Amino acid sequence: MNHPRHIHPDFLQLLEFKNQPLIDLFKDLRAFILDIYPDSNELLYHTHALTAVFSISEKLSDAFCMLPIYTNHVNLGFNKGTLLADPHQLLTGTGNLIRHIPVANPSDYRNSQVKDLIQAAINFAIADMDKPTKSVGKTISKIKKNL
């Protein structure tokens, strides 16, 4: 496992309000994704959930997966999950595009089936991208600070 990039201070400040097992799960899942695709850009949001989105560009539309952190759980979301082959039926949800894998412990994602699904999502995002990106391996905070 590579050493993943540091968590952005805007995100970390909000993450620290979560309970420690949830923080540990998020950090491990984030490292897992960054090990698979270290060049991904990480877009950070705080809306109804604290969310790290992993994209092949600086645009949300080029994202391949996301980690929304709710009060008591984390999901491994796939932005275009309905368009991915899911031979092991890992994905749940009813949205038009987004599907997710509920995550309660590392065994829910640290396996070859999920790794293959993430790689398929990356490949799909690359093939579906409108134009090449100039941003590689950056963390971009979209979190609005209360001043």
Can you characterise this structure?
The chain is of the alpha+beta class. The protein has one domain. 28% of the residues lie in helices and 22% in strands. The protein has three helices and six strands; from the N terminus they run H-H-E-E-E-E-E-H-E. Strands 5-4-3-2-1-6 form a six-stranded mixed β-sheet. 31% of the residues are buried. InterPro entries: YdhG-like. It holds the Pfam family DUF1801. This is YdhG-like domain-containing protein.
* Number of H/I helices: 3
Kindly, what is the distance between the CA atoms of the first and last residues, rounded to a whole number of angstroms? 38 Å
| Residues in helices, as a percent range | 25-40%
* Pattern of helices and strands: HHEEEEEHE
Low-confidence segments: none
Return Rg in Å. Answer: 14 Å
The major sheet is characterized as: 6 strands, mixed
InterPro entries: YdhG-like
Domain YdhG-like: 26-122
Protein name: YdhG-like domain-containing protein
Fill in the keyword field for this structure.
single chain, 147 residues, alpha+beta, six-stranded mixed β-sheet, YdhG-like, YdhG-like domain-containing protein
